[in-house]
Amino acid sequence: MLSQTKSIPRIIMSVSSSILLALLLVACSLGGSATTVPTPGSASPSAPTPTPTPSLTTFTGAGFTVGYPQGWKVSKASNGVVTFADPQGDMRLTITVIPDPNGIVSAANQVSAGLLLFKSQSNNYQQVNIASTTMIGGDTWSQGSATGTLMAKGQTPITAAKVMVVADDHPAASLNTMAYTIVYVASQQFYDSANTMYFQPMLQSFKFS
């Protein structure tokens, strides 16, 4: 069972929200100065490992559909950012869709922006050695992952968290290109089980519409 520590949901919510804010700023700058952080690993796409699929409810967003576990909370901000969270808030997956004509802000830069912001908010930051791309919804997405210890503002307890940022420009090289970014995060202790049980089935259900 995932940790019920009260500080974890607040920390995870803050981190995922801040990462998405950074991505929004990068996208709105249309080719601003986001620094690309080299992502270790193979450049070839890697298919998600097959996992038992939980019972999923379909959500329809801006140009996509995705399944999310029954019982999870869904919140949609006025800017269209959608967040899926388990009842305790220990696991969160957030999807943002932003206009990116001709893909001027590369998917790799979107990933880098998310990881750099996570780094700025954490101690003991370590980038995780993973393949630089993955397949989601029939497209090749850029991806990056990192771990770090986070402290809730004004609180002593810290928690180790792991974040994954994946991004894609779809359709590619078009005036109608949209930047799709998915950020999912959980406490590091339970990340692997959360990834197997929930995050991967959600990603496997993602489809462009």
General description of the model:
The protein is of the alpha+beta class. It has 3 helices and 11 strands. The protein has helices spanning 7-29, 107-120, 188-205, and strands at residues 56-61, 64-69, 73-76, 82-85, 91-99, 123-127, 133-136, 139-151, 158-170, 178-187, 207-208. α1 packs across α2 (107-120).
Kindly summarize this structure in a few lines.
With 209 residues, the protein is an alpha+beta fold. Helices cover 26% and strands 36% of the residues.
Describe the secondary structure blueprint for this structure:
Blueprint: H1 7-29, E1 56-61, E2 64-69, E3 73-76, E4 82-85, E5 91-99, H2 107-120, E6 123-127, E7 133-136, E8 139-151, E9 158-170, E10 178-187, H3 188-205, E11 207-208
Antiparallel strand pairs: 1-2, 2-11, 3-4, 4-5, 5-10, 6-8, 7-8, 8-9, 9-10
Helix pairs in contact: 1-2
Proportion of residues in helical segments = 25-40%
Q: Which class of secondary structure composition applies to the elements?
A: alpha+beta
Major sheet summary line: 8 strands, antiparallel
In round numbers, the mean pLDDT is 79
Q: List the uncertain runs.
A: 1-8, 26-51
Essential attributes:
alpha+beta, 209 residues, 11 strands, 3 helices, three-stranded antiparallel sheet, eight-stranded antiparallel sheet, globular, disordered N terminus
